[in-house]
From TrEMBL:
Signal peptide span: 1-18
Name of the protein in question: Tyrosinase copper-binding domain-containing protein
Keyword Signal attributed: yes
MF terms in GO: metal ion binding; oxidoreductase activity
Amino acid sequence: MRISGAVVLLFCAHLVRAVPGKFTSFSLHPGLNVTASIPYDSILQNYVQQKIDGNAKCSKLRHRVEWRALTAKQRQDWINAHWCLTQNPSLLAGAQTNLTGFRTSLHDDFSLIHLRLFHTIHYVAAFLPWHRYFIMAREAALRHCHYEGPLPYWDWGNILASPILSDDLGVGGNGTAPNGTVITGPFSHLPSSYINLPNANESDVTFQPHYLTRTFGTAINRNATYPMFEESYNSSAMRRVMTDSGDDYTLFEPLFEGIRGRQDIVGTGPHAGVHRSIGGEMNNAHSPNDPVFFLHHANVDRLWHYWQNGDTTGRGIGLSRSNWMDLNSKFWAYAGNTKQRHIQPDGGPNATLFDVQTVEGLFLPNVETYKIMDIERPPLCYTYV
């Protein structure tokens, strides 16, 4: 690291009534690397059967809602909780970064983890499940700061017209020249400690205290206006991702996340298009410095959940309530590279549902991927409304 000059899980009740009997397929999921001594197939079968038998119940499903569905008080409480994170000391800085003595916060911990793990959680299969778990950790942190409302997501639309990016109804707007510092709105002068320097390895962490930055439409000079990126994440673009990927996770994930090095509309992808449109912190590896990151990624998670359950529209239409019972359905589809191909051209070992996801102990323990594929059973226990 260079120095430059920084849930408590709730149990819930699932929405789907368990169907008596066995689930519909006992075939080994094709994404698994089989080690003869470990009964992967049986583990997954038993895991699904537990829910069918009613033994994987949530005491309550926490609702996640679109930002505009929050009450005025809930919006303010959510904003206040983010400021609270900046005033709580880091849980990671002493033991895991050797930054003893530096004043870093719980807010900073999220960017620190995102930076440290960047190459193992982007442009790889783990992108979607890892960020699903990361949002869970953020929810736990907000509860720690006494936020009691539903976790919000941002359903993308016209980015310029969105109330999310307004000072009075959202999380604030653009930054100001020369460097994009946000000086108005509820997150004016929000402090952060860590950045990834331009042209540095994306997992390099630099301690550089600064305030929140946004540079709408100027994240990349050759694409300095909204239309390029807005076209990458509008409703038509999301339908294209949902439809073109079919049931294949290895197509869905990169089309959704974005393909490294691609600046065209399809290659940018809905996920990366939002990051690049907002610019500033959001167009860098330290993007969790901006609270809008968590609204954005809750929506990414929502759309993955829809895809898992058979939606091809991106609007939650025609969702299956039984896909989770079929290990060969797209609900359990998970495969692809585990290493970024520009670093390791063969992509490393194929991803499996038994790969471990970690947020380095920040509120949550390590977890095997198959345990976070179903949001409506422990340990996740939430749904989108």
